[in-house]
Amino acid sequence: MTAIAFLLFIHVVYYACAQEYKGCFRSSALELPTPTLAYASVPAECTKKCRSHYYMFAALMNGELCYCISRFGQEGLSNSCTVFCAKDPNNYCGSYEAMSVYATGQQGPSPPRRIQVTQDDINALVITWQPPDIPNGNVTFYTVRAVAIKTHTSNILPPVESQIQGGASNSTILRGLQPGTKYNISIIASNTQGPSDPAYAVEWTLIGPPDKPFTPKILERGESTVTVMLTESHSEYGPISAYEVVVVQTGTIPPVGPKVEYLNYDRASKEGLNYYTTAQFDPSDFHRYKRFVVGDGNMIGGYYNIPLKNHFVSAQVGLVVISRIGTEVQRSYSDLTNNMFNRELNATTQTDSTALALCIVITILSILLGASIFLYFVLRRRHERFSMRKLPEQQELTLQGPMHEVDNMGYIPEDIPERVNHYQELKKKVWSIPRNALSIDSFIVRRGRFGTVHTGTVSRDDGSSSTVMIHTIADGALKGSDKRHMLRELDVCIRAGSMKYLAGLVGTCETSDTLYVVLESPPHILKNRLLGARSGGAFPTDRILSISTSIAAALQYLADYKIVHTRLCARSVGLMNDWTPKLIGHGIGKYSLEDVKYTRWTAIECFDRQKKHQPGAIWSFGVLLWEILSMGGTPYSNLTLDSEVEEAVMQGIRLPQLLDVPDPIYEVMSSCWRNDPEERPTLDELIRLDTLTMCPITAITEPYIPELELN
Q1: Helix or strand run (H / E) with residue 387
Q2: CATH architecture of 524-708
Q3: Nearest to 458 by CA among 516, 405, 376
Q4: Does 243 have pLDDT greater than 70?
Q5: Nearest 5°: CA angle at 572, between 568 and 574?
Q6: How far apart are CA 69 and CA 48, in angstroms?
Q7: Which residues are bridge partners to 186 per DSSP?
Q8: Average pLDDT over residues 599-623
Q9: Maximum CA pair distance of the chain?
Q10: SS3 per residue for 71-106
Q11: Is-same-fold flag (113-204; 217-333)?
Q12: Which superfamily does CATH assign the domain made up of 113-204 to?
């Protein structure tokens, strides 16, 4: 009953406001539009009609003529509204020379017009519109919102919203959308009085590449065939339209990428290519081809599955997943079988050798343990006999009571004063950024320990602007312990300052309830550029050693300020457009990184201890160097679980020497992985890494398996 009464109250208030009488005003028929209604019997009929056309006011003249207007009073007040309304003798409806004006209840402008949506990228749409034809004042901003109504992902997609300032704006690019998804786009115009009704349009985003398929597993090899087991794939960015099986000559590095298409055998042979498509089939037929025989001589999907011969006898096999809508086509390539097959053999051999070594070590330790126990009892018996002989001489001392040496192992915590005015302290050390100089994207990049992380731009006094990473921290919502921890993380960035090879702290911005921590944001991430090189993207392999040297220089710079980088990997290294590296992830910056499983980069002594130290960063640097030289390969890709990686490292297993890595460079990498932290190279030594000679990278032998690296 309470809810019904409230709704009735709202209705009465609206009705009263909608028919509020504004007064009688002079009017010139030349200034009025064509009557909306030639016959309006009562004021309510006229106001309702004008409200439906988004006008703020309704004007009545001569008892029945209804005009819809957005402003009035230019000619001044009048006392000539003496004609009663045709069917409402209680209200006046103007006269021949004056108009009675009523409010319609409309506040905001009419909806934007002529919405057009075009596809820009797989995760972006370009939206244009025309301004409202009835602004009812000045339009101050537009709100564009995209709601997913049909998608190929299993995740729940949140709405994406953007606010565009200025009434003259008529376009925007809405980013952060899900590829291969149908969106309902709404645009609302707002003036100082309120918002308009939304205008709508519907559009799909472009499809994206399917998820990378699993590597086919070799079951057996024949004289001219290879039998493999295929694994069904899926895609979050579009439909799965077809599968292809490809054959690649051993030793060849074929092109891969979402737009790369392999030819059939005949055309590939004529063009001198060492790779071709041998079969294509629909997803509905996957169960028929799950156990696939390469080279059986059949026609499959218009491709001749030619028997393997000549230099293709020991060929590698891969699986391609195709996503297609209309003329849009995206492909995703698996790793090739040969590398994985050899790796499994090597892993088996290595496991057998490890087992034999463990048996020998256990036997030796058992013998030493037995000898130690025997020696302990012999020495204990001799000590008891000696003590019995010396007892009279020590009688006087024993009367005084036993004396114990106490070792003071108490921990005295650092004196960290509670910073009551911590923001004032920060202002003395860093740039206090004005709020109007900071533009924050609505899309959430990460959710950190202290708040959300966004991208954005910061504008400087000289007119320049740059892309930044912004940590949004609701300071008032933090517990005392979290606030102190946040300040310590922030102090790390403040102490580090700025350096050529370090993505440093830009400044902070403070509002009444929020602290914005602004960090440099390089335009590229090293890991992504390495993986892009696998698909034909550009990467200067001749600059690998200079890039690595610059990273070591950044680590040395942090070490000079007693800072240990605990998240070192290719994902924590940014790249500028000129390939200059920028180390990211120190201090509070670690919460902007991807959620990586760092076990594969962790030093042997750090597996069972929380405290990190500089030699541990040296170990991680060696793994990072291997990651770069393998063009983004996954360390220990033959081991699935983190516990298996720990066990293998504890047993002395290290990352293998890559095909194109010279011995001196691999010796540097191996020295970073020595068991004794004191025997590892120093950062000063690693900074001279670019004095070594690097060979061209001719083959990519290590797979990239994202599920082993990311949580």
Answers
A1: helix 337-390
A2: Orthogonal Bundle (1.10)
A3: 516
A4: yes
A5: 135
A6: 13
A7: 145, 200
A8: 88
A9: 137
A10: CCCCCCECCCCCCEECCEEEEECCCCCEEEEEECCC
A11: yes
A12: Immunoglobulins (2.60.40.10)
C-alpha angle 305-309-313 in degrees, rounded to nearest 5: 95
Tell me, letter by letter, the H, E, C secondary structure of 550-566. Answer: HHHHHHHHHHHCCCCCC
* DSSP helix/strand/coil, 601: helix
Q: How far apart are CA 596 and CA 612, in angstroms?
A: 17
**CATH (one of 2.60.40, 2.60.120, 2.30.30, 1.10.8) for 217-333:** 2.60.40
CA–CA distance, 429 with 419 (Å, rounded to integer):
14
- Residue 362's CB: how many other CB atoms inside 10 A? 10
**Distant-in-sequence, close-in-space partners of 222: CB < 8 Å, separation ≥ 6:** 295
Closest residue by Cα to residue 206 from 238, 186, 168, 180? 180
Task: For residue 418, give every residue at least 6 positions away whose Cβ sits within 8 Å of its Cβ, in sequence order, or none.
Answer: 484
Mean pLDDT of the chain: 83
Q: Residue 209's pLDDT band (boundaries 50, 70, 90)? A: very high
Digit-coded pLDDT (tens) for 88-97: 888 778 888 8
Encode pLDDT of 61-111 as tens digits: 888 788 888 888 888 888 888 888 877 888 778 888 888 898 988 888 999
CA distances from 345 to 105, 219, 240, 293, 467 (A): 79, 13, 33, 22, 47
In the block, tokens 């696939």 appear at: 292
Given CA atoms 22, 26, 32, 38 in this order, what sign does their dihedral have? Answer: positive
Alpha helix segments (H runs only) across 604-700: 614-629, 642-650, 663-672, 683-686
Distance, C-alpha 132 to centroid of its chain: 37
State the sign of the Cα–Cα–Cα–Cα dihedral 256, 260, 266, 267: negative
E strand or H helix that includes residue 172: strand 171-175
What CATH number belongs to 423-520? 3.30.200.20
226-229 and 291-294 beta bridge pairing: antiparallel
d(CA 561, CA 502): 13
Contact 514, 437 (CB under 8 A): no
SS3 447: strand
Which 3 state secondary structure label does DSSP give 361?
helix
With a CB cutoff of 8 Å and minimum separation 6, the contacts of 277 are 244, 245, 246, 247, 262, 263, 264, 265, 303, 320
Q: Would you say 702 and 637 are in contact if contact means Cβ atoms under 8 Å apart?
A: yes
Contact between 245 and 203 (Cβ < 8 Å): no
Place of tokens 């496991």: 351
Distance between CA atoms of residues 243 and 221, nearest Å: 22
Match 């024949």 to its residue by tokens.
222
| The token pair that represents 310 in the structure block | 């000549």
Q: How confident is the model at residue 705 (pLDDT cuts 50, 70, 90)?
A: very high
Whether the model pTM is above 0.90: no
**Residues present in the chain in total:** 711
pLDDT confidence band for 412 (50 / 70 / 90): very low
Residue located via tokens 């006094």: 461
With cut-offs at 50, 70 and 90, classify the pLDDT of residue 384: low
Q: How many CA atoms lie within 13 Å of 527's alpha carbon, on the beta-carbon side?
A: 20
What whole-number distance in Å separates Cα of residue 463 and Cα of residue 430?
20
pLDDT tens-digit profile of 633-673?
999 999 999 999 999 999 999 999 998 899 889 999 999 99
Phi (first) and psi of residue 249, to 5 degrees: -65, 140
Please state, as a whole number, how many other Cβ atoms lie within 10 Å of the Cβ of residue 37. Answer: 18
How far is it, in rounded angstroms, from Cα 21 to Cα 180?
53
DSSP state string for 302-321: TEE-PPP-GGGTT-EEEEEE
Q: Break the chain into its structural domains and give their ranges.
A: 18-103, 113-204, 217-333, 423-520, 524-708
Residue whose pair of structure tokens reads 């069972």 in the numeric block: 608
Q: Cα(524)–Cα(109) distance, rounded to whole angstroms?
A: 42
Give me the pLDDT at residue 477, please: 77
Q: Which two tokens stand for residue 148?
A: 């997913």
